[in-house]
Amino acid sequence: MVPQRVSYTMDSTLETVNHAEEVATRLATEAGFDDEDVMKISMAVREAAVNAVLHGNAYDLAKKVMVDFERTAHDLVITIRDQGRGLDMSKLPDPREEENLLKMSGRGIFLIRSFMDKVEIHPSHSGTEIKLTKHVHGPTVT
Amino acid sequence: MSMKTSTRQVDGVTIVDLSGRITLGEGSVVLRDTVRDLLSKGNKKLLLNLGDVNYIDSSGIGELVSAFTTAKNQGGELKLLNLTKKVHDLLQITKLYTVFDVRDDEATAVKSF
């Protein structure tokens, strides 16, 4: 197959979150993932986009969200970058711990890690990059 | 698809039938407003029927938790009915299945209050 890549630069809005999710659903389906994996991939992308728009860029329209979808021979790789302050990795408690169970938030990154095969988070002073990888087991796109 | 709600009363229990997506934005806000409105009007026994909820994200999960604690803090009770497999699996992996009283039969659920 020929590697495929599409990139988007989007505003810090809820529409961006929905759009990123829709593209993820389409590309994951085209990549041959089954329905359950498509749901996991699109949800992971949605959660990462929410983090970028809400927690990273804080809905600041001057800041953008960059989303890359890359289909390689073996993987679907999605990279989402924001222009916020950078995710504080020390503030990612396990939402399944007793003291966190009834908290309203704090489950996004946990769900992303649960749904994807590989998750790399790179926070910096100029924003956070999160790279999501799902191995392709379904039919190969030619 | 956005979320829609309708409410009905069965033997003193308020059943909220939800359909669509409970996600950041409209869906979460609708759920929050619906539950708070019902509680403010004295409806303390709430049963959320999620049978037609086909998608929920972490914000939606947070709203369910918030609805649960809000009801409890106001002397009420909130239970869940008819989870789809997707929602069931999400509550399992987040360990919230142990927090909520989850039912799959409406008549039994109503009697449990």
Report strand order across the widest sheet of chain B. 1-2-3-4-5
Number of DSSP strand runs of chain A: 5
How many domain units of chain A? 1
Q: Work out the largest interface and the residue count of each chain.
A: A-B, 20 and 20 residues
Number of domains of chain B: 1
* Major sheet of chain A: 5 strands, antiparallel
What CATH calls the topology of chain B is Transcription Regulator spoIIAA
Mean pLDDT of chain A: 92
Q: Over the alpha carbons, how many angstroms does the gyration radius of chain A reach?
A: 15 Å
What ranges of chain A have pLDDT less than 50 throughout 5 or more consecutive residues?
A: none
The number of helical elements of chain A comes to: 3
Q: Report the top-level CATH class of chain A.
A: Alpha Beta
The CATH C-level name of chain B is Alpha Beta
User: What would the CATH topology of chain A be?
Assistant: Heat Shock Protein 90
Low-confidence stretches of chain B: none
Structural class of chain B: alpha/beta
Task: Explain this structure.
Chain A has a five-stranded antiparallel sheet with strand order 1-2-3-5-4, covered by helices on one side. Chain A is α+β, with helices and mostly antiparallel strands and 142 residues long. Chain A has a single domain, classed as Heat Shock Protein 90 (2-Layer Sandwich). Helices cover 33% and strands 27% of the residues of chain A. The N and C termini of chain A lie close together (4 Å). In chain A, a hairpin with a 2-residue loop joins strand 4 and strand 5. The radius of gyration of chain A is 15 Å and the shape is globular. Chain B is of the alpha/beta class and 113 residues long. Chain B has a single domain, classed as Transcription Regulator spoIIAA, CATH 3.30.750. Helix content of chain B is 41%, strand content 32%. Chain B has four helices and five strands. A five-stranded mixed sheet of chain B has the order 1-2-3-4-5. In chain B, helix 1 packs parallel to helix 2. The longest helix of chain B is centred in the middle third of the chain and has 16 residues. Chain B is globular. The chains are: A alpha+beta (142), B alpha/beta (113). At the A-B interface, helix 2 and helix 3 of A face helix 2 and helix 3 of B.
